[in-house]
Amino acid sequence: MAHMFANTASVISSRTLRLDSQAVADARTQLATCFRLAALHGLEEGICNHFSAVVPGCDDLFFVNPYGYAFGEITASRLLICDYDGRVIDGDGQSEATAFFIHARVHQLMPRVEAAFHTHMPFATALCLLDGPPLLWLGQTALKFYGRTAVR
Q1: Which of 39, 55, 77, 141 has the fewest CB atoms within 10 Å, i.e. the most exposed one?
Q2: With bands split at pLDDT 50, 70 and 90, how would you rate the model's confidence at 89?
Q3: Which domain holds residue 134?
């Protein structure tokens, strides 16, 4: 289940940061393109998938998709810029909670990781529910197999 992550601490003004550079705009566009390509190839499931990338020139900030949008709906202008404390520095909306906790820590603890992608591959959730017969119908993804499996 997805949950928004909202840090109620004061927001840093994006005017004091260099977020209008060509390098930042290019990175924003490239990451949005990755979302669209993932959607095109069916590499998403619901809204609990997330990609992130470090903001060029700002090693303590990262782009991440906002809560509530499918990959095919992500545009460069919809991407959030967050800090490692969960504050949204630029953009409208909030990060999904697991997106923040996974991606902030990856980028903070492993600076060489400039981009991180977390997807739910087609049927992965349903297949993870296979722990002996019968197949458990615990979610919409598992229902893709309803009536199409033979279990002994």
Answers
A1: 77
A2: very high
A3: 123-152
Give the separation between CA 111 and CA 88, rounded to whole angstroms: 20
Question: Quick one: 108 and 128 in the same domain?
Answer: no
Confidence of residue 14 (pLDDT cuts 50, 70, 90): very low
68 and 36 belong to one structural domain: yes
**Distance between CA atoms of residues 78 and 32, nearest Å:** 9
**Helix ranges, the chain (H):** 22-40, 97-109, 124-128
Question: What mean pLDDT value characterizes the chain?
Answer: 82
Residues 109, 136 share a domain: no
Task: Give the number of residues written for the chain.
Answer: 152
As a whole number of angstroms, the distance between CA 47 and CA 50 comes to 8
Do residues 90 and 129 share a domain? no
